[in-house]
Amino acid sequence: MAFKIIASQCTQCGACEFECPSGAIKFKGESYVVELQKCTECEGAFDTQQCASVCPVPKTCVPA
C-alpha cells in the first residue's frame, strides 16, 4: 500500500515533499501528490510515515 494526499485539504506548504525519504511526493498542478509506485510508506527508514507526521493538517496524508 502507499499513501496519498487529500488535495482539498492540502495547504501546499511543501513540508511533506522534503521529508519523504523515497522522493515520492511532487508538486503537480495545484497541489502535492504521492507517486504511488515510489511510496514505500517509509518502511525500513522510519517507524512512522514522514508525510503524515509533518503535515500541519490532520488526516491529509493517508493510506491510499
Question: What tags apply to this protein structure?
Answer:
single chain, 64 residues, alpha+beta, Alpha-Beta Plaits, two-stranded antiparallel ribbon, two-stranded antiparallel sheet, 22% strand, globular
Portion of residues within helices: 10-25%
Tell me the series of helices and strands, N- to C-terminal.
Answer: EHEEHE
Q: Which strands sit side by side, in order, in the main sheet?
A: 1-4
**Rg over CA atoms:** 10 Å
Gross geometry: globular
CATH hierarchy class name: Alpha Beta
Quickly count the helices: 2
Uncertain residue segments: none
Query: Which fold does the CATH topology refer to?
Result: Alpha-Beta Plaits
Secondary-structure blueprint:
Elements: E1 3-5, H1 15-19, E2 25-28, E3 31-34, H2 50-54, E4 61-63
Antiparallel strand pairs: 1-4, 2-3
Cofactor: [4Fe-4S] cluster
InterPro entries: 4Fe4S_Fe-S-bd, 4Fe4S_Fe_S_CS
Protein name: Ferredoxin
Write up this protein:
This protein has helices at about 15-20, 50-55; strands at about 5, 25-30, 30-35, 60-64. The strands form two sheets. A two-stranded antiparallel sheet has the order 1-4. With about 60 residues, the chain is an alpha+beta fold. The chain is about 15% helix and about 20% strand. It has a single domain (about 5-64), classed as Alpha-Beta Plaits (2-Layer Sandwich).
